[in-house]
Amino acid sequence: MKNALRVICGLGAVWAMAMLSGCGESQSGTNALESIKQKDSVTIGVFGDKPPFGYVDEKGQNAGFDVYIAKQIAKDLLGSEEKVRFVLVEAANRIEFLKSNKADIMMANFTRTDERANQVDFANPYMKVALGVVSKDGAVTDIAQLQGKTLIVNKGTTADFYFSKNHPEIKLLKFEQNTETFAALQDGRGDALAHDNTLLFAWAKENPSFAVGIKELGEIDVIAPAVKKGNTELLEWLNEEMARLQKDKFLLKAYEDTLAPIYGDLVEARDVTFE
Hints:
The protein has 12 helices and 13 strands. By secondary structure, the chain is an alpha/beta fold. It folds into 2 domains: 40-126 and 224-271, D-Maltodextrin-Binding Protein, domain 2 (3-Layer(aba) Sandwich); 130-220, 3-Layer(aba) Sandwich (D-Maltodextrin-Binding Protein, domain 2). α6 links the parallel β9 and β10. Keywords: Signal, Transport.
């Protein structure tokens, strides 16, 4: 009888711990916004190697279009942009950083797709984007020209997914980091490189021996902040914030301060951001 009671009590303790653990998980999911306010700091994931959207400048500071907006998010949320802590991510680990609570918000030029939306929650978008293909002198102007050739992409990006699904006949050379990807194109390890056209336009302007031969591929997508699945209050706040930033013309200001100097008259603000 005593042994049975020990088993029952033991099971009760395990059940109680499981209930407490479950409540904790629910709380961390639904009260992420309150948790950020309590710790008085927000952790935002950004790129460190994708200028002009997210990069580390010569002073060792995070800079770029995404970072510019992220700082304003921190200011509106906590009263000061100094209360943001940036963590550098790569394309392939953006979802994992949210799932493992290494980032509260992901602002690493994150294109919204149905597959990703099954794993994280996207807020209202702040940017428009499509795929493009850059090559030496813009020689590749049609996908058919890539038959039997090597196309360079970043792992876990929209370009990776698009070509893997729609053009399995094209050989893909994949890298984790943008610096590796573009270096591979420059030294001839691939015949062309596929990435977000907004990034390619900027890169080609800095590297005039290359040109974007395919300027728009597939559907027009959007880039948006993302949070861990189930972080309802934080998602709702972000939706309101993005609507406010668009209404107040802040997104246009962010474009003019960070992207316009790069694009010049090559791109218009309304083509890539929500005015």
